[in-house]
Structure formats: structure tokens, C-alpha cells
Specification:
By secondary structure, this protein is an alpha/beta fold. Helix content is 41%, strand content 15%. Helix 4 runs parallel beside helix 5 and helix 6 crosses helix 7.
Length: 182
């Protein structure tokens, strides 16, 4: 998130990887930072790849923003969009300057045309799972972010009992003040 800034966003961004917690955080950042809250009702579209058509996406992405400066279009699981006429590729080659498009895909195949072009033209954000040795630091930082002081024992307790579910870790940390194992 540190490299994201509302003034320097690419027209297209690919958020990829299998860590749903980080994908969720990045999409939340885009929702909060691309548009003022008052503009969101009219200028945000979200599509599910398997259920959308390239025509619907292109129509939404090319519409001028209503009552604001930008539009945000999110396409989840872009790898599942059926696009025999290459409309997505045409859009990526010539994106609308007032629209920020965020594509997501858990495991993109960068050998395909779509992902090969996204790799060249879009901002890429990889959301990989934390390595085992990174989890304690994440737990500690999450506690600090929420104003919770975690003992070293509590950090290791959470790591061992919650595994790698970062959503579960966030929920456990937020539900208590100072944690220590019983």
C-alpha cells in the first residue's frame, strides 16, 4: 500500500495472488482513495469475471464520471471473463483517462495474451501469502495498528492457533485489549 498514491495511479492495475486478506485491503484502499465518498454511489462498478461480459465492462469503464472527476471499475477474477472479441485487450490498449480499472486474479497465467499485456501496461500488485516467519511480525503490527499490546507469548499463541488466516488474526486481535495465553 505504501507505493499507492491517488495522484499517480495507472489507468489499469492488476491485483493478483492467493492471499485474500491483502487483495481485500488493496481493493478497500482503491475504494477509499480514488473517489470521495460522495461520488462512490455513481462512479463505482464492480463485476465478477464469470458473470460479466466484456461489453458490460467496457460500457462501465468508458462512461464519464457523474458529479466527480474519476470512475472506479473493479473486475474480480478477470481470468474467468470470456472475451472472444478481445474487448478487454482493446480497452487496456486505450483506457479511458477518467477511469481507474482494477482487475483481480488469484493465479494469472502470464503466458496468455490478457496477462501478458497487463504485465506490460498495468501496475501489478502481488498479494502473496505470508511466509511462516513473517506471521509473528504481521500479528504484532496488526495489534499495534489496533492499539492492542500483544505479549510475545500471545503473538506465538495466535500464530499457532489461528494458522495463516490473516482475517482470523485481525478479528482475534481486535476482540481483546492485551492478549496473553491462558
Amino acid at each position: 500500500l505504501a507505493r499507492l498514491h491517488p495522484d499517480t495511479l495507472a489507468s489499469c492495475t492488476l491485483v493478483y495472488g492467493v492471499e485474500p486478506f491483502f487483495v481485500h485491503q488493496i481493493l478497500t484502499w482503491f475504494l477509499k482513495n480514488v473517489l470521495p465518498e460522495a461520488d462512490r454511489d455513481f462512479n463505482v462498478n464492480r463485476f465478477e469475471g464469470a458473470k460479466t461480459t466484456p461489453d458490460a465492462f467496457c460500457l462501465a469503464a468508458r462512461v464519464c464520471p457523474l458529479f466527480g472527476e474519476k470512475r472506479l471499475v473493479i473486475v474480480d477474477d478477470v481470468d474467468k471473463v470470456k472475451d472472444p472479441r478481445d474487448l478487454l485487450l482493446s480497452y487496456i490498449a486505450s483506457p479511458c483517462p477518467t477511469t481507474v480499472v482494477v482487475f483481480t486474479a488469484p493465479k494469472p497465467d502470464f503466458r496468455t495474451r490478457l496477462f501478458s499485456i497487463l504485465k506490460k501496461q498495468a501496475m501489478l500488485i502481488h498479494c502473496r501469502p505470508l511466509y511462516d516467519n513473517e506471521q509473528p511480525r504481521f500479528i504484532k503490527r496488526e495489534g499495534e495498528r489496533q492499539g492492542v499490546r500483544l505479549t510475545e507469548e500471545a503473538i506465538w499463541f495466535l500464530k499457532e492457533h489461528l494458522g495463516s488466516s490473516l482475517f482470523s488474526i485481525r478479528k482475534a486481535v481486535s476482540s481483546s485489549g492485551t492478549l496473553s495465553p491462558s
